[in-house]
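Collaborator request, handled under Task 6.
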Amino acid sequence: MTITKLLIANRGEIACRVIKTAKKMGIATVAVYSDADREALHVRMADDAVHIGASPAKDSYLLADKIIAACKATGAQAVHPGYGFLSENASFSAALEAEGIIFVGPGPKAIEAMGDKITSKKLAAEAGVSTVPGHMGLIDDAEHAVTISKSIGYPVMIKASAGGGGKGMRIAWNDADAREGFERSKSEAASSFGDDRIFIEKFVTEPRHIEIQLIADAHGNAIYLNERECSIQRRNQKVIEEAPSPFLDEATRKAMGEQSVALAQAVGYRSAGTVEFIVDKDRNFYFLEMNTRLQVEHPVTEMITGLDLVELMIRVANGEKLPLTQDQVLRNGWAIESRLYAEDPYRNFLPSTGRLTRYRPPAESVSDDLVVRNDTGVFEGGEISTFYDPMIAKLCTWAPTREAAVDAMAVALDSFEVEGVGNNLPFLSTVMEQDRFREGRLTTGYIAEEFPEGFSGAELSDEHHFDIVAAAAMLMARRDHRRMGGETESRWHVQVGDKAETVVLHQNGPDIVVDAEWRSEAVRVTWQPGDTLARLDWSGGRHAVLKVDPTTSGFRVRYRGADLKVLVLRPHIAKYLTHMPVKVPPDMSKYLLCPMPGQVVRIDVKEGDVVEDGQTLAIVEAMKMENVLKAEKRARVKTVHVVPGAVLAVDQVMLEFEAV
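Structure tokens returned to the collaborator:
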């Protein structure tokens, strides 16, 4: 059967991504949608769309019978599952097969074998794949988890057998962590996957997360398409990925690739798949799991190989042979992917929901020395809901070298405008500027190690500080409609935080010479009042893009991870600043505030209880992740303002404390 109509059993950016390739191949597309996604971008893009249920995934995107019914109603001969939801559900694949509908993915036996982490590790060992020491059997209860953890040796990783996407995973460093980690992982696994089985394995210190992309057909051919470095993670969820890895040598790459192919062939695998490894500082690598689906981070592989993985998946599902051999796989240049999430980095990356009042990604482009790509499933005016993953977009850049790809990503992030929901743009920008990242010294503990106290904004280099000061002065000059010409100069008092300086601007033909107290340089600025982006082209060839919003006496400037209020005044006015009153924010230290929109799972204290530093107070679930809220100091609970099951807004008061 030749696929002429494809149903995408997913939503968001991956549904949009699959639709793009299907259209390129001349294949008609069918979208499915829930109540919450009635106006979603993937629904607009598809040729046809079918409503399949209520907003919660369990009432829509996880209902195999609704997907099959939609196929029959629209005449779709095949289903692409994307990632998440039913993409690694063996019974769904089997049900489609029984109905004569093509599943664009591996067969049910391969999904079942590789989808269960316990079974997959046993099969990997049998296939000669290097594996991590651990306990692959079932675990009875929390105390059994402690016993197993002790026998393996701390630290250990507690994982849901059917897990994925960072859910149902905890690191335990001691007995107490093992008990709580087991309970939380088991609870998250049950709610996210309907399977609460847990296993435990050794946690490798200083680890890198490196994965091998492979593709196999139904004719016995399988090849690997190089690797991806996915070490920068938060709560076991990947944040920044790149291809290739800055750490692997050719021998290690070859060994990992060949072992991945051997595992795929051992289970009769077909379609795209990814074998994930933990790699230690000596390049020893250990099998983690196999993802029997398209990965979120697949674009970076496409950008260095020139292949369209979705197209290859569809062709394999059509019964075609792979169009290339292992020797023909390219590795050209370097690609970086940044996952843009609706989460507040200043609140420990807690989920954020709401309407995208502004969504302006950088322009996509393709040239011999730069590619900018943005995979997304949202639009300006659309809503980020509480029902699904908080991803907004995947921003990717490619360049001939890693340094150039990182530089391109830094500019692209600065050019990305998102308003209406909290987002991690400033955090992503900050990472791009860190020496450790630029040197490729990565581990899965990168975020915890580099931001031990959480994220509070970037520390700007002198060069980037100068960019902000210069831009603020030039923009204020234009905002005041003061044209500079000839020898006319414009003088400004610019204050960033507690640092103030005088900046003098001189017109020099099409350029403006910026004289600060410690630096002088010529620049061309592209900005007019009302613009939200300002571009600076410095005489030395350096470029900068800053997000700017006018304030009463200056601008809010966001640049390279910093979010700053910049005061810009005429010097004769600035001398009166010392007489201005300073507004002091209210003291909220006696309250526990809900850090994100979510639902109260439980309250662990009652009025009158004395709590200690670090004691668990409550658990709030947001986007299928359970967030444990703990006491920051010793105090007595004066009032409990919420009950389990309550749906809370961000900063809603949950508990009130008083001194002991």
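The cover message to the collaborator said: "The first strand starts at residue 5 and ends at 8. Residues 248 and 402 are 14 Å apart (CA to CA). Please let us know whether this matches your experimental observations."
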